[in-house]
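Ticket #4471: structure output looks truncated?

Reporter: J.K.
Steps to reproduce: submitted the chain below (615 residues) through the standard prediction queue, then opened the result file.
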Amino acid sequence: MINRYKLDSILMKVEKPARYIGMEQNVIIKDLEKTKVKFAFSFPDVYEVGMSHLGMHILYNLINNVEEYACERVFAPWVDMEDEIRNADLPLFTLENKEEVRNFDFLGFTLQYEMSYTNIINILDLSKIPVFSADRDEHHPLVIAGGPCAYNPEPLWEFIDLFVIGEGEEVTLELMDLYSKHKDGSYSREQFLIDAAMNIQGVYVPRFYDVSYNEDSTIENRKPLIDGIPEVIEKRMIRNLDTMFSPEKMLVPYMETIHDRISMELFRGCTHGCRFCQAGMIYRPIREKSVDRLLELAEKLVESTGYENISLSSLSSCDYSQLHLLISSLMDRFEDKKVGISLPSLRLDSVSIDILKEIEKVRKTGLTFAPEAGSQRLRDVINKGVDEEDLVNAVSYAFKEGWSKIKLYFMIGLPTETDDDVVGIKRLAYLVKDLFFNRPKEEKIGNFSVTASASCFVPKPFTPFQWHGQDTIEEFNRKIRLVRGEIKDNKVSFNYHDPRVSYLEAIVARGDRKVSQLLYRAWKNGCKFDGWSEHFKYDTYLNTLKEVGLDGTFYANRARNFEENLPWDFINPGPNKQYLINEYTKALKGETTRDCRLGCTGCGIKDCAMWGVFN
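Returned output as attached by the reporter:
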């Protein structure tokens, strides 16, 4: 346990001490001396971001639900706190018991965003844990990582001992059970990793594999170094979401976080097949929670947290098969308590007037729609499955019911995109404005605004677009200027993502093992909180690329061919490679693929009907 006197003096000097004190409502503090296995969970960003992540709440409560196991939290300290910790020579500590992270059996990271990877290295260093896996011994925690970005683990291969590929609820406890058995005997770090790699599905230990390269820097081959470990890593999936562990309490912070509300997961997976969406591919097949189970969880979460809003979260929440029944039931139960219901970004083809009416009974919580592209041609390329009539119907419903602020999400740099597609962003935003103002005067309720937000497309692993090259920074900026120049109405706002950040994101997301040295050297050169504009050091990254001898365009902007060995090809995400190739080929022709709830599209997942809502 760290020196409390030193900690108290430090907390007096930092901007937001509530980030580091713990003691929140529903916190679980165990006697670490009486627990058999200790797990430190880390979201590699600041407290406000990490505390808004549903996966953290799930694993925190899941592990602590086992009497002899303990889970405590550690987040990336903001720069002021890091300076104080380093000046006082304090190791990084957990929030619950203020225990040194290096004294835990596991340090687990969730990988949600590639631009947080330098924070992982920084957290290891602040914890006084050797940054490189090869330098750790029996006295150091096992450093593990999971989450969506773990589907390409190679850029972090030198820092992480063990990756979990897929959903973590079952495999995390299996790893802790295995560790407990090893701990009962004569513990060997190496033997534990071998046993985990051989016997637990979804486990990948990178140092047990060798990768060779061709002269053109593409991958020649990869092979296991130990007999018996799998050549292909099969992802983990939870079969039944009703019987899986779901938290009945959530930690309630003392300070404002990104999402101050209850978050309830309706289902996992998605059936639409948007070709840019990694999550829609890797989380297949779709599996739903029942209405009864969700209502049961809602009752307990409202009672245990006191929150006044329930967010119904999933990849496409409006596709929940019993959404109207669920929302009407939630409103019946909680209207008197003034608990509102919110839906995240809505598919344009899924909104109904009845659902909007139910949601507005307590409060209007804002509406966000995601057309993704400015033209129907490009929406067909990405297989979005919506058209302009859907947008007209959706926002007309919203305006009729009194909404006046609309957000539209787009991407720029999508495959086959033309300038006409880009200018279509402005056209759709103006269409929404006209739909509002072309109504009778008495129906124009509220102060209207429409915000069009554009992110820069990053071709991600395990999507049909994984072979496509990313636009250059110069091309992204040209397209951004094109849209900005077209918008001349103060009722229409245009926001956009920094193309330089997206370029670095693409290098890491599409990277191989060589990118680990880029991350390490960038961290040594002062990079951290790379996803925060005030701390993003683009020039430092450019210099570091030269320092380690890597060409960023090789990873970000280069198109791959179908025969190339991709860095992540050794992982089986569910949909097979031929399906992704077929979808990419159809995209270039502008051909669409139906929602797989309407009939199997042949993605390669076996026995799909056994998993979820299909008959």
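Triage note (M.O.): checked the attachment and the full token line is present. The mean pLDDT is 93.
Status: closed, working as intended.
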